[in-house]
Amino acid sequence: MELAVVNSLGVETYQKFSDLFLHLIVENDKSSGYASFVARDPDQLDVDALAEEALRKTSKEEPIQIEPGEYEVILEPYAVSELLSFLGYLGFHALAVQEGRSFSLIGSGKKWWMKR
Predict the structure, then answer these.
(1) Which of 19, 78, 27 is nearest to 45 (CA)?
(2) 102: which residues sit within 8 A by CB, 6+ positions away?
């Protein structure tokens, strides 16, 4: 990947680099497990540790049926990271706000989150 930044303040910079992404999904008959790795240094990649992490998340128990409804959930860090990245891509950035296309402008000035 190549990245160049030039602006009207006289900043001129350039960098060439590579990123390594590995997303691992392990499945059995009953469930699945996930682990992920991102770095620029391939020597940091430990495939065995990633596989172990994903395997720990699989279940050997039979899945159960639950009724539709509201449930409190706990998201693991991978899920939160993906959610925030997607929200940032969609509208949590200055350009989207300046152009008036950010969803964060909906209800501007109103409380967004409910108190607990």
Answers:
(1) 19
(2) 90, 91, 92, 93, 96
The phi, psi pair for 10, rounded to 5°, reads 95, 5
DSSP assignments along 38-49, one per residue: EES-GGG--HHH
Under DSSP, is residue 24 helix (H, G, I), strand (E, B) or coil?
A: strand
Query: Given phi > 0 = left and psi -120 to 50 = alpha, else beta, which region is 109?
Result: left
> How is residue 70 written in tokens?
């509201």
pLDDT in tens, 11-31: 999 999 888 999 999 999 999
3-state secondary structure of 112: coil
Other residues' Cβ atoms within 10 Å of the Cβ of residue 84: 11
47-82: pLDDT as tens digits: 999 999 999 999 889 989 999 999 999 999 999 999
Q: Is the pTM of this model over 0.70?
A: no
